[in-house]
């Protein structure tokens, strides 16, 4: 019977650990806030216009470079 009690305690501890991990470890919101620009051609998220310009010149050299104003989302 002792193993039954230990099993229950282990399961409860596991559930508590999973609940803690689910609440505070996700960085999806932080990551989404960091990437402010999306490449209109390939939909790659980029952090700022400087990185966008480097990406665009390397990956899409035949296309004209969009201006910074045209990339900002409509407010």
TrEMBL record:
Keyword vocabulary terms for this entry: Cytoplasm, Nucleus
GO CC terms, sorted: cytoplasm; nucleus
Compartments (UniProt record): Cytoplasm; Nucleus
Main location: cytoplasm
Keyword Iron applies: no
Superkingdom, natural source: Eukaryota
Region Disordered, residue ranges: 1-28
InterPro entries: MBS1/2-like, ZNF706/At2g23090_sf
SUPFAM superfamilies: Expressed protein At2g23090/F21P24.15
PANTHER family recorded: GEO09665P1-RELATED, ZINC FINGER PROTEIN 706
Record-given protein name: Zinc finger protein Ci-ZF-144
